[in-house]
Design brief:
Length: 314
């Protein structure tokens, strides 16, 4: 099958690209199953809503991994499904057959085998990422507020968000006691926090931030993220918060409004979303965001912007 003519970004390691294509094949299985449901019942509202969510994810992640034609196809399909959802009982639309064509064409553009719709597809992860770094240091702050600690090899609890941290920096020269304490406190706080429900995009951001040596946290669910962000002791710093607009459980605008109400000025928020229209970007800026990062995301561009945003908050 012919793959998308766009080459994957050269900064991506082959292993990460292979993982994305494997996850994309599982996602195609989900889409194929939804298409089968629409063949049986074109007005299936649950299937339509799920199809919109999955095409939305493909729109953002496929382009971020270099498959721009697949991203554009998903963007068009997302708009089509929104129209279907607005008129679920329209008898003149062959929703199932068009959805099946979309899945087949998407598989061609990604260069992966078409999954068997009758096979049980792998679930698309929506729960918070498991912690893949060390547990928090004990007795440094209240137990509900979790620091990012230097690398260790301890088994983390399964229900915590991801804590991904670089090796600790060399010990600085001796300074007055109060300044040493302040520096140590700051090193326990993440520089970047991102909230992203798309597993493929979350992994891409994880790779980039890890490669650049940032201390960072990752969340997949809006409510979970807000609960942790309200409790996190930032120790006088202002972490950069990359906040997806379209999140399960609680959207990005609602999270920002709650943070501005409960902890104004604590986080420096940048919205991430596929909705890059002028109106959407203005809405985000007027809501209090520092900036707006439009998907599909170029990892090189995103990391350069993150470097400037983080430096501006120090």
């Amino acid at each position: 099958m012919a793959a998308d003519a766009t080459s994957p970004p050269p900064e991506l390691p082959p292993g990460l690209l292979a993982e994305y294509l494997e996850s994309a094949r599982a996602q195609l299985g989900v889409l194929a199953g939804l298409a089968e449901r629409l063949v049986v019942a074109g007005g299936d509202r649950e299937a339509l809503d799920a199809l919109r969510r999955e095409t939305h994810k493909v729109h953002g992640s496929a382009g971020s991994y270099g498959f721009m034609e697949a991203s554009r196809l998903a963007a068009g399909m997302e708009a089509t499904v929104k129209d279907w959802a607005a008129r679920p009982d329209d008898p003149d639309v062959e929703r199932g057959s068009l959805a099946q064509w979309f899945v087949k064409r998407l598989a061609e553009l990604l260069g992966v085998d078409m999954p068997d719709a009758s096979a049980a597809p792998a679930p698309i992860r929506t729960a918070p990422l498991p912690r893949v770094g060390p547990p928090p240091r004990p007795a440094l702050r209240p137990p509900t507020q979790r620091p990012v600690a230097p690398r260790a090899r301890a088994a983390p609890p399964p229900d915590d968000p991801a804590w991904i941290v670089p090796p600790p920096p060399p010990a600085p020269p001796a300074k007055p006691a109060e300044r040493v304490v302040a520096s140590a406190d700051a090193l326990l706080v993440p520089e970047v926090i991102y909230v992203e429900d798309d597993a493929a995009l979350a992994e891409l951001l994880e790779y980039g931030l890890r490669a650049q040596g940032y201390r960072f946290l990752a969340y997949r669910n809006g409510r979970e993220a807000l609960r942790e962000l309200l409790a996190l002791d930032v120790r006088g710093t202002h972490p950069l918060l990359l906040l997806d607009v379209d999140l399960p459980a609680l959207d990005g605008y609602s999270i920002l409004a709650a943070l501005e109400r409960e902890r104004p000025g604590t986080y420096r928020v940048v919205f991430t979303t596929v909705h890059g229209t002028e109106e959407e970007q203005l809405r985000g800026l007027e809501a209090g965001a520092l900036d707006y990062l439009v998907k599909p995301i170029s990892l090189r561009v995103a990391l350069e912007k993150i470097k400037r945003w983080v430096a501006g908050g120090r």
